Amino acid sequence: xxxxxxxxxxxxxxxxxxxxxxxxxxxxxxxxxxxxxxxxxxxxxxxxxxxxxxxxxxxxxxxxxxxxxxxxxxxxxxxxxxxxxxxxxxxxxxxxxxxxxxxxxxxxxxxxxxxxxxxxxxxxxxxxxxxxxxxxxxxxxxxxxxxxxxxxxxxxxxxxxxxxxxxxxxxxxxxxxxxxxxxxxxxxxxxxxxxxxxxxxxxxxxxxxxxxxxxxxxx
Length: 219
Fold this sequence. Notes:
Elements lengths: L1 E4 L7 H4 L1 E2 L3 E5 L4 H11 L2 E5 L7 H4 E3 L3 E5 L15 E5 L6 H4 E3 L3 E4 L5 H11 L2 E4 L12 E3 L4 E3 L5 H11 L3 E3 L9 H4 E4 L2 E5 L4 H12 L2
Parallel strand pairs: 1-15, 3-4, 6-7, 9-10, 12-13
Antiparallel strand pairs: 2-3, 5-6, 8-9, 11-12, 14-15
């Protein structure tokens, strides 16, 4: 189900939350209504936490069905509900807002081109994926401008045909072009999604909602 809303009184719900097919994580101080909204949109269990005291979960971590990569000032206790079932990597790199800098599916991750090679190796091990450096539409913070589910890849319209082909081949998924939150190219910051639904910022227009819903529903 696709729903519109806010988290932390912000339409940039992807900055404050992260999800996969079975779980969503939202800030510890989220309201009961926000928790219900996320659960209803994504049909997942919802957990509440901070990362190193910060509510910016979507900027500070990325996860797939196998693991999570987290900013190095986080602690294992922040993700105690994951530690028995997921590989968890606390990244030590000059690039630290990993949710903005990594776009990960269950088979591949596209990452900020300035990550250290050693960090790339650790990311691949934690998420159990191939890791490729790159940009989307000339932007290095690939996680902030795209969203990937097991069925589709949503990217901002600044990409050209060559880049679309590269992304299709890399992720082995259809690429859908869209904006969110009334024209923002930062769709990764504006929404969270899995194959069952999405929560998009409440500034998103009816056309944006239609495009996102069409992408999420693709098989």
